């Protein structure tokens, strides 16, 4: 992975740039000029007033500048913090079951097919091409339990120029239905081989990630060994946590000596500042405090949460705990591989929660789970044994009209205003938030000088495109229209570390 110490200017882009910073979810910088150097890094980013001065210093001429059209803009490439490359073949189908049944009926039988290299190559090439075309410059992938085809995914991502994490999935218990599992020893030995062979290939922007599927699929011994391996090799870690009620119940049964789901991973040293856990819909305040302490992140996968009827993640609550958070498509539990969809579903989910708070439903739901949540009504106090009409609740697979408070606590609901996520905040989650969640925000996520140029060029007005722009639209309107209505027809170019990766070669 070569970067030279003396970098030359490679090219300039002039026009409107849209990105996020810690202090602002969306900055729209019109009439700016950016210089990208031969190492793929942002060398300068200034108001175009300074063009003459910059041209002198960096010795570029008008012909070295790519000038964007009047409605066009450049934004950071999107970061998909959780996606199963191996499930792409059935995305858009098989959404009629809840998580654990869905895994048994559709997912494990599909993932078994990846033992065959040819099959794996076809699907993995398709998902890498598809996500790049959709503007995903960084993807954090789950592959399958098979080491060799997981290495193939890494090679494919590298060949197409995507920034990626690739995980060989580990699972040694409870997966008999499709005969898709490994022994504990195999899982550990194959993970070691995976990391060793991966690192020997010395890819610049594709890295291995330790991947226990989730606590339901992993023995205590396997989790602990994987925690050790992550520590030895300094690798990233990914898994699932608290996605669905049935799963949370299973973890309670399988790991009776642990305080909660988070404790299972934490005791195995799987919660670090390089960890990203998908979902987290049912994490308590206490668990989120542990995430914050360890620097571990959450991948919010709203399409999947809705499609598998798993639940909703309250992003406001996660942000309040100052836990790092990004967005994930979670293909194929989430049916869409585009991060634009993840942005839209994140906003939808947040608005649903807002409605629930307004009606007081969410408070009761969380109170039943033994958690306190902010809400609108301050007069409601729930006591142990108190019957609550829960006909509007759906907890797991059991429907009931009456539920009993599960603890002796008295729940007093505080009055607090709830605000839904704005499109600007969702944009930040999909870009800078994702890079922070994956602990690569020193390299990518926005247009800070010195970061690598991971970007997409958006052209809102394309013939036959998915939306229209009118004369009285502000630039903010145009950006919002793209985020809500746009698709790959509007994405004219995708860059990773300064290299153009879309249009794809042979596309
Ligand atoms: N939990 C364990 N495995 C999976 C998976 O493949 N998809 C989702 N959404 N959740 C999981
Ligand atoms: Fe997942």
TrEMBL record:
Q: Amidohydrolase-related domain: from which residue to which, for each copy?
A: 74-360, 416-501
Per UniProt, the enzyme's principal EC class comes to hydrolase
User: Taxonomy-wise, where does this protein's organism fall, top ranks first?
Assistant: Eukaryota, Metazoa, Chordata, Craniata, Vertebrata
Q: What does this protein do?
A: Catalyzes the hydrolytic deamination of guanine, producing xanthine and ammonia.
| Cofactor remark from the record | Binds 1 zinc ion per subunit.
Q: How does it assemble?
A: Homodimer.
Pfam families membership? Amidohydro_1
E.C. no:
3.5.4.3
GO CC annotations? cytosol
Q: Which GO terms describe its molecular function?
A: guanine deaminase activity; zinc ion binding
Keyword terms of this UniProt record: Hydrolase, Metal-binding, Phosphoprotein, Zinc
Cofactors (names): Zn(2+)
Superkingdom of origin organism: Eukaryota
InterPro entries listed in its UniProt record: Amidohydro-rel, Guanine_deaminase, Metal-dep_hydrolase_composite, Metal_Hydrolase, Metallo-dep_hydrolases
Entry-linked Gene3D superfamilies:
Metal-dependent hydrolases, Urease, subunit C, domain 1
Q: Cite the PANTHER family for this sequence.
A: GUANINE DEAMINASE (PTHR11271:SF6)
Q: Which pathway, metabolic or otherwise, does it act in? A: Purine metabolism; guanine degradation; xanthine from guanine: step 1/1
In its UniProt record, which GO terms are filed under biological process?
A: guanine catabolic process
What organism is recorded for this protein? Microcaecilia unicolor
Which family does this protein fall into? Belongs to the metallo-dependent hydrolases superfamily. ATZ/TRZ family.
Q: Give the catalysed reaction(s), semicolon-separated.
A: guanine + H2O + H(+) = xanthine + NH4(+)
Q: What is this protein called?
A: Guanine deaminase
